[in-house]
Amino acid sequence: PASERASEPTRDPKDGLPELELLERAGTAQETQRLDEALRLYDELLAQNPAHVVALQRSGIALLDAGRIAEGVARLERLDLVQLPADQPMFRLAAAYAQLGKEREA
Fold it and tell me: Out of 1, 15, 34, 53, which could bridge 29 as a Cys pair, Cβ 3.0 to 4.6 Å?
């Protein structure tokens, strides 16, 4: 019932700040081609929240950019690519499948 939900404590928006800061640091590292640092930060975020869509997407692309194709494919496969607004992960995944000789999946 609604009365029970009203008594549940709501999450303070400030509780998400450390996660957001970690994501921003990882994004900055990725944009400046510090891929090892970016991946370490994304992995830290994914350890806290394994289903974090943005971290999965960005880290999958970072793995591909680092030449770690099989790992990048595995990371991107954890996403529901059909529901993502951006098409970049889908194109990157298709290109990675082709690099792995998996043209059928591409």
Answer: 34
